[in-house]
Design goal:
By secondary structure, the chain is of the alpha/beta class. It is built from 14 helices and 10 strands. A 6-stranded mixed β-sheet has the order 1-2-10-7-8-9, sandwiched between helices. A 4-stranded parallel β-sheet has the order 5-4-3-6, with helices on both faces. Strand 7, helix 9 and strand 8 form a beta-alpha-beta unit. The chain starts with a helix and ends with a helix.
Length: 317
Amino acid sequence: MIGLNDIEKAREVVSKYLVRTPMIATTALSESMNRKLFFKNEGLQKTGSFKPRGSLNKIHHLSPEEMKRGVITVSSGNHAQGLAFAAKVFGVKATVVMRKETSNLKVAATRRHGAEVVLTEGDPFQVAAELQRERSLCFVHPFDDRHIIAGHGSLGLEIVEQCPDLDFLFVPVGGGGLISGVATAVKLKKSSVKIIGVEPVGASAMWQSLQKGKVVTLERAQSVAAGLSPPFVGELNFQIVREYVDDLVVVTDKQIIESLWLTLEQSKLLSEPSAAASFAGFQSCLSKIPEGAVVVCLISGANIDRHELRDLCDYRP
């Protein structure tokens, strides 16, 4: 398992290159829901999401020989940008394997940071493994990695410091890298906080793994929240979630999209569908949360362009 010391050391590394993102009070939404609701907005982080936190810490811990060889990873978009950014900071060559249907915005941003992007219609992990062998690259797992998790844990430290009266924290769940890092930090700083993970119903790999007591691979994972749709979660992430996460809820694509529009209209906060899932999860649990409770929804990223927003206007799940 990962300790608080690992996360505090990771923060020392990542804070040199990143910003401390704001904790946003939501006056109108708080009044309408009779809870004190805050949004931790990682959409204003470098590259537009939380992902550089883990990547910076990971590359920092590579050996000089590994850095010289270069790194390779698999991503649906945000991790690609995070790793490309971190690799640029440390002067390391980065290769990213992405599906052909990945957002043009995320592909272009990854290339702007200097990474080579390999688009594929096949299994990205298989393609990455082949390239890793051919080029002798160092594989950086997007979520099942101690240094990645500890880097993301730096976000949990910020949340507790910015909202010391926190009662409930809602966190989006994809492969599990974000929630495992944040949950570790928050629980070790303030054990009374209830941490709730949120997954799309069409890509509920963590929820199904928890039900079966072991990591499972989904035959099909599909959601409007592409960043929350890997077909499996990490082994280490699974163990940490079992240890520190109090509950996991699943939400529909319709709930995610409605939450995205509500945060935009009421709080003037732009989020991508994967990030809006946390707010959707909070709304689905509203009756179980005491009135007056202090709640934080982690808005994990805002990498969405005008074309995607237009498509969401017409999306019919």
